[in-house]
Amino acid sequence: MTTRTHRRAIQVEGTVGESPLRPDGIAKLQGKFAYAQDLESEGMLWGATVRSPHASATIESIDIGPALSIGGVHAVLTASDVPGRPSFGLEHPDQPVLAGDKVSFWGEPVAIVAAEDPDTARLAAAAVKVVYREQVPLTDPEEADLRDEVFRRMRIRRGDQDVSGPVVVEGYYEVGMQDQAPLGPEAGLAIPDGQGGIDLYATSQFVHVDHEQIVASLGLPPEAVRSHPTGIGGAFGAREDVNLHIHLCMLALHTRRPVKMVYRRSESFAGHVHRHPARMWYRHTADAEGRLLRVEARVVIDGGAYASTTAAVLANACYFVVGPYRCDSVSVDGVGTRTNNPPCGAMRGFGAVQVCFAYEAQMDRLAEALDMDPLELRRRNVLATGDVMPTTGQLITTPLPTAEVIETLRAMPLSDGDQSVLPGGSGLTSELRDVVRGVGYALGIKNLGFAEGFDDYAQARVRLTSEGAIVETAAIEVGQGLVTVLAQIARAGLGVSKAEVRHVDTSRIDSAGSTSASRQTQVSGGATLEASTRLRERILGHHHGDDLTDEGVWRSGALVVPMEELTREAWEETVTFRHPPTEAPNADGQGAVHADFAVAGHRAVVDVDPELGMVKVVRVDTVQDVGRALNPGSIRGQIEGGIMQGVGLAIMEELVMENGVIRNPNFTDYLLPTILDAPDVEAVLIEEDGSWGPFGAKGVGEPPTISSTAAVAAAIRIATGRQLNRVPIRPQDISMGDR
Amino acid sequence: MSALIVEFTLNGSPATARVMSSGSALDALRDELGLFGAKSGCEQGECGSCSILLDGAVVCSCLVMAGDLQGLVVVTVEGVAGDEIHPVQTAMHEGGAVQCGFCTPGIVVAAVDLFERIPHPTGEEIKEALAGNICRCTGYGAIVRALQELSAGSGT
Amino acid sequence: MVEVQHPTSVDQAVAAMAEGALALAGGTDLMVEVNFGHARPENVVALRRIGELAEWEPNRIGAGVTWSRLEQGGPLALAQAARTVGSPQIRNAGTLGGNVGTASPAGDGLPFLAAVDASIELVSPAGVRSVPWHEYFVGVKKTARLAGELITAIGLPEAMPERQAFGKIGTRNAMVIATVCCVVTRAQTGVTTVALGSVAPTPMRARQAEEMISSIDRPSESDMVEFARLVSEEVRPITDHRSTEEYRRYAAGILARRLLDRCLR
Prior knowledge:
The complex is a heterotrimer of chains A (739), B (156) and C (265). By secondary structure, chain A is α+β, with helices and mostly antiparallel strands. Chain A is built from 17 helices and 31 strands. In chain A, the strands form eight sheets. In chain A, strands 3-7-1-14-11-12-13 form a seven-stranded mixed β-sheet, with helices on both faces. Chain A has a six-stranded mixed β-sheet with strand order 9-17-16-15-10-31. In chain A, strands 18-26-27-30 form a four-stranded mixed β-sheet. In chain B, strand 1 and strand 2 form a beta hairpin.
C-alpha cells in the first residue's frame, strides 16, 4: 500500500521577531505539496454524497437498488447503516450523520456511495431514488424566535438600566450570509487498518474534536481511529465542523478498501457551515460631550438547521456589542435561531464581525448627531487596560491599546492611492468625473482563545535531535504560518538554530484545540515555548551546563557535551498549555468570560460611482494590537488577507437565499475579490508587553477581518450620503437606497 | 469497454491518457497521469487554480476536454522549470506570497506566462495577468510585491 | 463511451455534426455543464484545429477567433467587450462563435453584434446560410440554429459606425457576469444604435431611444435624459440572484447615456 502524505516540512531558521521563509513554500510553489484532494492509496475507491434538494421535507422512501446495480459501485449507505451515534455536532450532537426520516436544510446528506472511480460514484449518487414529501421551510429568523426555535438566548444587563441622556441614535442593521470559501474544497482519504480501525486524512481545523465525533458515530473505541492532519487549502472556520469525515470512515469500513472523497465547489457550499447572517437593533445614548451613557441592542443571528457553534457565536456577538468603548449601562438581548436555512458556524471573526458593522455605524451616526469628528468621538470613549468590559464587567488586565490604535491610525499619511482601476474596472462603466472619494474609519475588538469556562488547552512536544529541534503537534496549519512560528518559538526557547514542525495524528499527541479564535500562536505557541524552555533547563541541569547551542552543552565557555553525544540520548518534553481560566457568565451575562482581547482599527479609502453604485476600495490602512510580533511577515499576510475578506463582505460576498435554497453555490455568482479588487494596504503593528502568549504575543488572525468591513461601509456612506445599513452593499443600495 | 486514447506533449515529453468520458483535462492530469500540481477549486474557470499552458497560452484545465488534448502541448506547474526552481517561484517564496498555497500553482503558471510575454511587467500588467487567479489567503499584496520585485530585478 | 473527433476542416466538422456530434469550441461554457453534471456528451467534435474558423477578415470574424485576439484587434466596442470576458484564461480559450452558440442573455459579445446588425453564418451539409442577429437569437439560450448546423463566422457590415462604446456593469472589477451590458454606436450621419445585454431574454436594441436620438445633431442635456429614460423604458429585465429588475432598468439608462456621451465627445 502506498500513501502520499504531505512532504516533510524542511527546517526553519530564524528566531522570534524575524520573518523566516515558510518551510513548505517551495513545495507549494512547485505543486508538490499534497493537499487532501491529492492523496491516493492503492485499491482506493471514490465516495460521493446524495444531498437533499429541499430545505425541509420528510423522507418517504429511499431506494438504493438502482445505484447498487451500476457496475463498479461497492456500497450505498443510508442512515440505518450508521454503526454508532446517529448524529454529530461540535457542541451538541444534533446533526444526523445521514438524514433519516426528514431533511432540514438544502444539501443535507441523505446517502453515501463508494465506487471504482469518481465518475461512477457521482452517477451512482444520482441514481439513488429518494422520495421526499416537501414541507414549508422555516426560513425567517424572526418567526423562528417567535416560535421559540432557538439554540440560545443571551441576556446581558450591566449597570443602571434607567440611564437617559441628551443624544440618542437608533439604527437597524443587517449582515448577509458570508462563506469562508477556502480555495481547497473539502476532501479526504480513509484507509482501513485491517483490524477494524481507520486512518483518516481529511481537511480539518481540529482533528481531535473530529476524532471524538467519528468514534462515537462509528461505535468504535477511540484507539481504533487515527485522525491525521493533512494539507489544507485554507479554512477560515469552514473546517471546524465534521462533514465528510464520518462518511469516509463508514464507506472504508464497509468496503474494507481505502475511500477518497472530494467535494466539488457547489457541494462545498452545501457541505460546510457559513458566517451567521445577522439582524441588529441598536440605541446609543450619549452626553453632549460624546461620552457613551448607555447602549441597548437586540441581536438576532440565524444558526440554520443545526447547532454547530451558534451558541458561542451568539455569545461573542453579544459580548462585543458595544465595541472597544467604555459604557456603564448596557442591555443586550440576543437570540440564535433554528431554521431550515443552511447551518451556520465559525468564520473568522466569529460574531464580532456582525456587531462591529452595526456599532461602528452607530458611532458614526452619533458623531454626526454631535457634529464631532468620528475618531474624536471614539477617542473619548476608548476602552483600555484597567477598565471593565462594558458588557460582562470583566476587568481588562492584559494590554488593550485602543487609544494608541486611534492615534496611530489618525497619524498615518493619507495618500491618494492608485486610481489605475476605477469603480467598475474593465467594464468601463465609470470615468474619473463619475467618481467621488470617501474615507471611513472603524475599530474592532475581539477575544482571543476560547471563552466562557471552556477548558482551552494545547499540547506540544519538543524533541532535541542531532538535526535540531522537532516540534510535534496536532495543531492544524491552514496556511497561516503555524509551521513557521512554532519552529521560531522552539528555536528561541531551546537555543538551537534549526527547528522543524511535524504534524502528528490523534493517537500520538493530545489535542492542540482548534486552529481558530486567533489562538494557536498563543496556545500551541505557549506549549512549544514551555516545552522547549523546560527541555533546555533539563538538559543543562543534567549536564551541569550553562548554555545550549548547536554545538552542544557548554559550561564556563567550554563545550562539555557535543550535540552528537548529547542527542544519542532521547531528549523530549511534552507540555499541555492552558491560558488563564475563564468562567461561565451569570444570568445577566456577567463574568470573566474571556482570556485576552485584541483591538484593531481600519481606515478605508474608496472611490464610488454613486450614480451606478460601483465601488473600488482604493486602500485600507490599519493599526493592529499584536502584543509581540513573532513573525512580522506572516502577520502582514494575515492582515492583508483578512482585510480582503472584510472588503468582500462589505461589497460583494453573499450567499443569496431563497426559501432555504442557496441560489449562488458557485464561484460565478458567489463573488470573491480578485487581484483587481484588492486595495493597497499599509499596516502598523502595536507591540506591548503583558499578554500571556509566548513572548507576549497575541493572536492576529481575526482582527483584520473585524473592522475592515465596517470601515469600507463608513467610507461608502461618506462618499454617497446613503444610509447603507446592510452588507454586502450592492450597487442598487448605493444608487437607489435610502438617504 | 474501450477507452479513447489521446496522445499529447506533457511537460516536454510524450504522454498518453485514457479518456473514459467527456471529463476535463484537469481530471485526466490528476487522476490518470498522477500530476497533482494543478488544483481543482471550482470546476468552472473562475478560480484559476488549475491553470496550465496549452499550446503556449494559459487556460483553465478544468475547461479543456481531455479528449481535445490530442496533439497539443501541455505545460503544468511541474513543467515550468523542470527540476530547477523558476525565478517566479523564488520571488514568491522570498516575498511571502504563499499561505495555504492552493492557488499558488495556478498563479505560478500565469506569472511564468506573463514574464515570458513581458519580461518587465508593470504592476498593472501583473494584476491584469493574475485577474483570473483567486487567492483567498493573502489579499494579493505579497504576490504583487514579489512579482514587482522580480520585474525590477530580473535581467534583460 | 466518449468519442471526440479532431477535424481540421469545416467540411469534416459538418459531416461529424450531421452524425450527431456536439460542437466543442473553447469549452468555457460546455465544460462547466459537464463538470456540474448537467451534460454528458458522448459524441464530440472539437473545433480548435480548424484553421478556417480562426480566420478573420475586416467584415467576417471566424467563429473560432478567441477573445484574446479580439481584445487586441477587434472593432473598438467589440475589443472593449472582449476585454471584460472572464479572465485571461477564459479569453485564451473562449471564442466569439461560442458566445453566439451559447446565446446567454449575458453574453458579453452579443450587444455589439446587435448594435452593428451582424449576421450569423451557419453551415450544414445543405450549404451555407446567413441569419441576421435578430432572427438568430430567439430566447434564453435559444437560437435559430438547426441541429447539425455549425457556426462558422460572424458577418459584419461593410461600413462600421465611426463612434462606438461598450460598458458592462458587474459587482466585481474583473471576471464577472454582466448585470447590464451595453453598446452604443453613432455614425457621422447621427444614426445611433443602442444594444443591451442581460436585460431581456436575448440581446436587444432600444429602438425608440435610437430613433429619438438619431435625429438630433447635438443632443442637449435634456435630450440625453430623455434618451436614458427611453432606454430604461424599453428594456425587459428580471430580478434574479445577481440583481433586481429595478436596478437593471435604471442602470441600463444611465449606462447607455454615458456611452452615448462618449460617442459624442
